[in-house]
Amino acid sequence: MIAYIMCFILFLTGLYGVITRRNLVKIAVSLSIMEISTFLFFALLGYIDGGVAPIVDPSDPAKVYVDPLPQALVLTAIVIGLATTSMLMAVIIRLYRKYGTFDIREIKNLRG
Amino acid sequence: MNQLIPLFVVIPLAAAFLIMIIGRFVEEFNKYFTSIVLMFLAFMSFYFLFNTGENMFVYKVGGWEPVNNIPIGIYMVLDGFSVIVVCIINLVGFLSAIYSISYIKRYTSPNYYYALFCLMIGGMNGVVLSGDLFNIFVFLEISVISSYALVAFGVESNELEASFKYQILGGLASFLILFGIGFIYWKTKTLNIADIKSAFSNGYNKTTYLFIQILMLSGFGLKAAIIPFHAWLPDAHSSAPSPISAMLSGIFIKAVGIYVLIRLFFNMFAITEGMAILITVLGTVSMVIGVFLAIGQWDIKRLLAYHSISQMGYVVMSVGIGMILLSKGVKPEIASLAIAGGIFHLINHAAFKGLLFLNAGAIEYTTGTRNLREMGGLAKNMPVTSATSFIASMSISGVPPFNGFFSKLIIIIAAIMAGFYLLAALAVVVSIITLASFMKFQRYAFYNKPDNSKSQNIKEVPFPMMFSMVTMSIICILLSLLVVPAIRDTILTPAINVLADPLKYSTTVLIQ
Description:
heterodimer, A: 112 residues, 3 helices
């Protein structure tokens, strides 16, 4: 249970960072922290105490296996996370070239 | 029929791939190929629209048959509701692609544009057709990432800023959704929507259930830009290239936001009264606040973007009224009427908001400005744009005999019959303010005398743009025919039946 709570705290840490940071790169890093906490949650879902890798062994029916589906999901989610992070970084680099700063308070053309 | 369903996803994905490869060697390949592909998809979706009826087509990806009635593969489900959304996605997508042929000449690297365009269409089709929660997430990310890139396509400071804001809020929404999916998997050990429904019907922990519902509502609410979550929408929709704005406002927020919300809350969760009231309140708030934010805008595309929030509020409010009635178990025929009004308005909004954004793009294309104060007297030089935008403005403000009138009328009648007089009155007031704000748009853009001589050499837009706008305006008028009982029964009624009967979806999918 403690692992789940830690994972939720990590999520809230990321959320706090996204809301309070002023630096574009730090916002992106906070977003990645949230992402990782979600992945961790998925990995925890599939874990079973004393389970082994899910390669079925017919000779030993008493064996306990971990749930393979969350692992597959988390792999997919990591690939998606890579795409979102690199897209975000590309936009941040472009923004830096336009404005010459990473400070979000200086970047406010769009209002109203 | 079942075997054709994956084509809606496979064809656009393959087209995106081919455009990147062949477009490198063959000039002009990208634009015509995209248009042909989307025309094919639009025809195919119409074929499905007239042949689906009450049927539900289920395609099992990879041919994994269920074991002991427990689905183990990924399901793609096409029913009366999803076929309508697929239809508007591909139709608006096709017209935007035609429009892009001329419009996109001002940007460099058209190959990337068309490849991202196809990816976005493929992702949205996937979201709508998927019957599996995690698959919805994957397709949602495909379409959302391509829309991030398309919003930033101009790579000027405004576009980049809008895209950054959109990415942060979109990323937040994605992780909330993923968290919700994780919780659902934890509690039910399955990801198939129909199977989750039957797992939840065996009993559940109330607190966890509420937590999952809140996570899903805030995640997809962020994607749908319901009012407390709306901050990204006006920036993103006004900064994107106009055909993309038409897609984002016309279909994107519906396909990945409203559609999934409706699908999950009607067909996956058991409808609870508290949640139904919350959704109705959110809808009403976005309907009212959206229009007040819109009326003060002078940038055409920002004005239209705020109106998207307000019009989506109508849809959410109407569907919410239906949910309240269903959860109480009273007056089922009025609940059906409210849901019908919501879905009808969703279809109409795709037509007229798409058209309005294309008009805004046409104005920007010829005059080079989006500020209403700097334009005027365009009606003489741009008759087609002026006429089509008049039709769209009257549709969105609910003036008879255009389509918006009938859907708003159904929503208001349903609210009155259900006893929500305040909501009905608010819907009327918002409709009047919408009319006022579009009178301002018409007057300043098309009829005021220009105070400078710059507008003398303004010409009408090229043929592909005109073609899209005229077709959209014809669709706007034709959609009023959906109130005719014979047409309504073939198109709208199957969608309402899927939603109004809480068990129909899950039982039908699980026995296939």
